[in-house]
Design goal:
Elements: E1 10-12, H1 16-26, E2 32-34, H2 44-54, E3 61-64, H3 69-78, E4 82-84, H4 89-102, E5 105-107, E6 114-115, H5 121-124
Parallel strand pairs: 1-2, 1-6, 2-3, 3-4, 4-5
Helix pairs in contact: 1-2, 3-4
Length: about 130
């Protein structure tokens, strides 16, 4: 599934400290915060609460649901700004419709992203927000 062409830089955040660091580095520029795939075990309510605690309103975000349709529905119900769903096409179409009605982002695959859990990610973070020359 193709990604929307207008997605801002994406960053996988693994907790409140990561979210705050990314939002500070972005300095008001658009950014898409992504949950790591393993966040499914914590649930989407954790994700939404963590982002709310990070401040700056609710930033653009997507909860990675893998192929779990129930988790995707729970993420949308909890108020996630979007979902990443990699399950079957029929379920994906239904979830995309639900997301659209709620004004949420639907992604059929995770976009390329800087993972804040990777070695040296904090040093690479500011470069995401530099204007191209």
């Amino acid at each position: 599934m193709a990604l929307p062409p207008d997605l801002p830089p994406a960053v996988i955040v693994r907790g409140l400290g990561d979210a705050r660091a990314v939002l500070a580095a972005a300095s008001g520029k658009p950014v898409l915060l992504l949950s790591p795939p393993e966040a499914r075990r914590l649930g989407p309510a954790w994700w939404v609460a963590m982002l709310a605690e990070a401040g700056a309103g609710m930033p653009a975000n997507a909860f990675d649901c893998g192929g779990e349709a129930g988790t995707a529905q729970a993420a949308l119900a909890a108020g996630a700004g979007g979902i990443v769903f990699t399950g079957n096409a029929a379920l994906a179409a239904r979830l995309a419709s639900i997301a659209a009605r709620q004004g949420a982002l639907f992604l059929g695959r995770a976009p390329p992203a800087l993972d804040m859990g990777a070695y040296g990610a904090i040093r690479r973070l500011p470069g995401l927000f530099l204007a191209p020359e």
